[in-house]
Amino acid sequence: MTTDTRKVTTGCLFVALKGERFDAHDFAEQAKAAGAGALLVSRPLACDLPQVIVNDTRQAFGELAAWVRQQVPTRVVALTGSSGKTSVKEMTAAILSQCGNTLYTAGNLNNDIGVPMTLLRLTKEHQYAVIELGANHQGEIAWTVSLTRPEAALVNNLAAAHLEGFGSLAGVAKAKGEIYTGLPGKWHRHPQCRQ
């Protein structure tokens, strides 16, 4: 499965995402020429490939990734923060890789497209996964953590970053705190952390 025509492999599902400045539905013929076997689209296309038509390809992409996540017993750590997420992710993955096969977010693919891309790479061979969750608006982490289903979560830090999407430091804290909605059962706050 891919969202990028440059990464189509023979027989794969091409997911036609639509953004503010692009519409991958326009590249269905390119995906077919590259060997795609089917399309995930939000409207019927004239392309001669089997098509799964959904209301929202971005949501369906996430739901497919969540299904993959549910199929594997991988122990997942999710992390977020205003800065340093990628460094903390790399360090955490390096530590866990000493204990077993560890998958982690490539680069900073930490949004509602990147997180599903990472989850789709999960296999039964992965004992651990470290998933970086980013956000530029309220609700984004709540969505990606629902896909990820971690058993541990970390907010590295909070700072006045991305205020255009959150309005205030309190808004940043609220958005980053969404990561805890994905934890099973009861969670604990370190006693030195301010509320």
TrEMBL record:
Keywords from the named record: ATP-binding, Ligase, Nucleotide-binding
GO molecular function, one term: ATP binding
Superkingdom per UniProt: Bacteria
Record EC number: 6.3.2.10
Mur ligase N-terminal catalytic domain segment(s): 1-74
Enzyme class: ligase
Domain Mur ligase central: residue ranges: 80-184
PANTHER family: UDP-N-ACETYLMURAMOYL-TRIPEPTIDE--D-ALANYL-D-ALANINE LIGASE
Protein name: MurF
Phylogenetic lineage: Bacteria, Pseudomonadati, Pseudomonadota, Gammaproteobacteria, Enterobacterales
